[in-house]
Design brief:
Number of domains: 2
Order of helices and strands: EHEEEHEHEHEEHEEHEHEEEEEH
GO molecular function, one term: methionyl-tRNA formyltransferase activity
EC number: 2.1.2.9
Catalytic activity: L-methionyl-tRNA(fMet) + (6R)-10-formyltetrahydrofolate = N-formyl-L-methionyl-tRNA(fMet) + (6S)-5,6,7,8-tetrahydrofolate + H(+)
Organism: Nitratiruptor tergarcus DSM 16512
Enzyme class: transferase
CATH topology of the largest domain: Rossmann fold
């Protein structure tokens, strides 16, 4: 069975690993290399690095657009039986969808959280259940017929990092089953009335005002990789936990100072803060930070 695989981050890499040795991966299509960090070092996508480091004999395509006729012809030239898509980062035009059945492994239980950031959105909403949907792609944004689901729990200490790993494992196990049983599966249309959407995350989404402890903690879980969470004065909260869901306080008030953490009040509830990072400085212990700022119980972080 010939597969053209389309994906970009480590979530996609895990799914690709699950296909190696079972199917003939005839090509990888991924995003172009992009500048990363302050020095803007040109960096390949995670999945490209994996293929190169493993020495896999898989042609790699990195087109800036999928609408180019030459790109479409090149993908068609591999004569795939299926196109498998996982967090690729672009919508597929109908010309590519018509080459072969295109199966997307979306990291939510569709039609919930169609769009760019389903894992982060599940954490922001405080969901306790999520999963992976294998979907037969159409031209819409995650609107295609459903082929299969797999489900997992979201624990209170799960972050985007751990949840990405859980869902990648689910998708890696689900994909071969869907491909092998494709002809026996009856696709199930999505109910648009139940659909919800999630947006592409911006840096500004990470700003917090400590209005609610649970909401703030969920933002920390969702944005732990990027953009993180930070106060209006630019102080980043790098390691926190939910201390109390209830209780009324001044936002940012230091309620207690312990050996390894401080307790910070929100308008509702409070947070345990272990690590912070001041603007343009290195990450440090929260206790060391407040001592350096000569603030303590009763003062505020911003």
């Amino acid at each position: 069975m010939r597969i053209v695989f389309m994906g970009t981050p480590d979530y996609a890499t895990k799914i690709l690993e699950g296909l190696l040795g079972k199917f003939d991966i005839v090509a990888l299509v991924t995003q172009p290399d992009k500048p990363v960090g302050r020095k803007q070092v040109l960096t390949p996508p995670h999945i490209k690095r994996f293929v190169l480091e493993q020495g896999l004999d898989i042609p790699i395509l990195q087109p800036p657009t999928l609408k180019d006729k030459k790109v479409i012809e090149q993908i068609a030239s591999f004569k795939p039986d299926f196109i498998v898509v996982a967090a690729y980062g672009m919508l597929l035009p109908k010309e590519i969808l018509s080459i072969a059945p295109s199966i997307n492994l979306h990291a939510s239980l569709l039609p919930r959280y169609r769009g760019a950031s389903p894992i982060q959105q599940a954490l922001l909403e405080g969901d306790t259940i999520t999963g992976v949907t294998a979907m037969l792609m159409d031209e819409g944004l995650d609107t295609g017929d459903i082929l299969a689901y797999d489900v997992c729990e979201i624990e209170e200490n799960d972050t985007a990092i751990t949840l990405f790993a859980k869902l990648a494992d689910l998708a890696a196990n689900l994909t071969p089953l869907v491909l092998e049983r494709f002809k026996k599966i009856k696709p199930l249309p999505q109910l648009d009335v139940d659909a919800s959407y999630c947006k592409k995350i911006k840096k500004s989404d990470g700003e917090i005002t400590l209005d609610d402890a649970t909401t703030t903690y969920n933002k920390y879980r969702a944005f732990i990789v990027w953009p993180g969470i930070f106060l209006p004065n630019g102080l980043k909260l790098k390691k926190i936990a939910l201390f109390a869901k209830e209780g009324e306080h001044r936002a940012g008030e230091i309620l207690a100072v312990e050996k390894d953490f401080i307790v910070v009040g929100c308008e509702r509830g409070s947070l345990k803060v272990e690590r912070v990072q001041p603007p343009s400085k290195k990450e440090m212990d929260a206790v060391a930070y407040i001592r350096g700022q000569r603030i303590g119980i009763g003062d505020t972080l911003f």
